[in-house]
Amino acid sequence: MRVVVWAVVATAWLFASATPASARGPYGSITVGNWKGGAFTNDKDGAFTHCSAGTTYQSGIFFMVAIANNGSWRLGFAHESWRLTPGEAFPLALTFDGQPAFNVYGMPLGTQLVNVEMPVNSALINQFRKARQMTAFAQGQLFQFNLNQTAQLLPALLNCVVSVKKNGVASAGEFALAAKPAAAAAPSPAAPSPPQKQAKSGTGTGFVVSSAGHVVTNHHVINGCNEITGNLSGEAPVKLRLVSGDETNDLALLQAPAPFKDVAKIRQNPIPVGNGVVAIGYPYHGLLTSDFTVTTGIVSSLSGILNDTRFLQISAAVQPGNSGGPLFDLGGSVVGVVAAKLDAVTVARATGTIPENINFAIKTGALRDFLDNSAVQYQTAEWRDSLKRETPEIAKDARGYTLLIVCKVNEQAAGKRGDTK
Q1: For the segment 335-390, what is each residue's pLDDT rounded down to a tens digit?
Q2: What would the 3-class secondary structure string for 131-188 be?
Q3: Taking the CB of residue 269, how many other CB atoms lie within 10 A of it?
Q4: Is the entire prediction scored with pTM above 0.70?
């Protein structure tokens, strides 16, 4: 409860005035998924100042989005452990969906609070409006934010500002509900039918985890898909249905209409740092080979960005299309689900150096919890030194249960979804 109260106070303080001053609110409410907020007024004179909403990420960062009464947009970042110097701005690189970074400045408004101005006519705010992922690099640290619900959040914030300026805070209600009808309005029956949208597709990787035909991949690989198919190398694709998804841990469970012959085994005991690993997947499918690729490396760290213990950091090279693929130990058991690579362009622009071989995989602890919650019976294996095998043997076995995942999505949805990795 202490963190929630602190976050609300931070939201109110951030946009109240040019100098640190208290604000009053929220009036009404904005409720979009985990985002919470409303309208705020200046505590001194009662004048409407802004509408804002925020949410806390697993890293502990409280992320805020706001529109001031003059229509300007701002972002805010806060964390209880930060010890910033108020008034001393620092460079901040923001990247949306892997696009070129925007170099801005963060202005500390308190020891734990950073404000980022976003003029309404800037390319930055346009990217933010349509993005699904955002990364922020500042002072040697990289932060990642999921923006999946901003398509609903931003209209609610706009509706909040317009409503309060017109009717005052006394009539404030749930601004998210009031923002929906216009966007969801059905076309007139007399209106001509819209042109047929052409289907687009993205690719990723998945692997079979049960004798009932269950397949695991990343949630971002299949998010927003109208049709999902999967196929083993050299075989015809089969249609897969989505069984369950875990957006927080970036995992998705699919199922084929019939079982596959082979099934991956999931390592039960944790893999130590420094151990060798093998990553298998379908990067740049259609541009490179149509077969899967095999890369090797080691476990570089037992945690991801900002010490996120759900992830392994690995040196095995991965590329767009590897996402959702299996990461094996040297015995051929799955020790992770390949999830992401560090954005080298963003880091290079922010630091002047190019990072090499920094990639991430979701640990099997999160994977097993996900499968247990989905009532999937999967096979496990314990590591023993006697089980060590050569890489070609591991790849040969993986051919029987590693799939190319193809996501088909119409053109309109593709613009909202972003690229599959």
Answers
A1: 999 998 766 555 555 556 666 678 899 999 999 999 999 999 999 999 887 789 99
A2: CCEEEEEECCEEEEEECCCHHHHHHHHHHHHHHHHHHCHHHCCEHHHHCHHHHHCCCC
A3: 14
A4: no
